[in-house]
Structure to design on (86 residues):
């Protein structure tokens, strides 16, 4: 079964490379160059929005009498707003 799985993976990889990667190589190279220049900024923005979203959603889902640390207080709300606004 291991040989069959390995061969299946290899065949799928070859098909992917043949029918997607090779025909789109110029576009993929251009995307890589664009991300190389602006990638850190985009990743930073996404991570900050994710952190704010996690704070708000966890407060909505898990806040309760037995989990007061999950509740959204003024400090956590201000932090989420500052992170979101930048």
């Amino acid at each position: 079964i291991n040989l069959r799985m390995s061969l299946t993976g290899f065949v799928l990889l070859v098909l992917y490379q043949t029918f997607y990667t090779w025909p789109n190589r110029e576009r993929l190279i251009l995307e890589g160059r664009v991300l190389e220049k602006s990638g850190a900024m985009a990743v930073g923005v996404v991570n900050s929005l994710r952190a704010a979203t996690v704070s708000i959603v966890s407060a909505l889902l898990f806040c309760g009498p037995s989990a007061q640390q999950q509740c959204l207080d003024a400090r956590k709300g201000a932090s989420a707003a500052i992170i979101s606004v930048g």
